Automatic annotation (TrEMBL):
Name the record gives this protein: Hemerythrin-like domain-containing protein
Pfam family, one: Hemerythrin
Record-linked CDD domains: Hr-like
Source organism: Prymnesium parvum (Toxic golden alga)
Residue span, Hemerythrin-like domain: 79-202
Lineage: superkingdom: Eukaryota
Amino acid sequence: MYQHCSFPIYGTVREMTFHLSIYGRPLSQVWADSTQMLRGLSTKQVNPSDTSFQADPRFPPDKTPLWKTPLEQDGWIRAHDCIRAELDTMKTTFVRLGSKPLTDSDIRAIQAAFAVHYTHIIDHHENEDAKVMPFMSSRVKLPEKLTSDHKEMMEYLEKLVAMVNALEPRSWIKDVLGVFKTYVDLMLPHLCEEEKVALPLLRAYFTPKEFEKIISSILKESPPLALGSFWYWLEGKRGDKSAIMKFMAQEGIPWFVYYLVFKGQVADYEAAFVEPLKAVETGKPWVPKPKRKLCC
């Protein structure tokens, strides 16, 4: 960020104005442009070569060609895909329930699935707020809205979880649908904005090698069920081994990690999120599976 003074002359009156600027553009204009470009599901992909996003002249936006994986196959978008898949799955279950009075089994199953989703979203936002965005901010001027949106979404998710946990036998899931719809309507546009703005900028200002440490941190520290969601919904193939192996090869993860870690994470996620909602849809009693014993 640089400072410069301009002294525009209007007729015989000289006014001195002081401007904070980024590469010749007033900072207020950069902020306004950043806010205006975030248009939810209608957000257009940012031009990453626009230097108004550049925070440090030592790091130009010239790294995009180093990323060989297509943008749509990036792990960030894959992580968003599994959130969208969870929302779609819950919505489908709720719509099919309609005005059907809930049983004890229905309630326990829905509460179990929501607990998994809650853990997943908490982890996802923490990864972005504490890892990805601070990492990017060293070189990129990001719109503040990309992180400030998380607070409002979490308020609705907290309210939603409280309502789900308060469900009683013979109540209706339709009582929860209004809050659920608001939550979804906040989440989906936000995911799109990150994909259209933050991700292209990440690839422009950082090399894949530089970003590896963030990916490694996420894989090491994220809850197993959050990672299980990622692997389960990868390419929409519901835990398909070939899809997982393909992504592992893309990210340079050794093949044997699938058998040691990822396969079990998929199984645990399916048991904790997918099967409870499937039981609700089919009207069958849901019986939680015993926790898997870890071999190591």
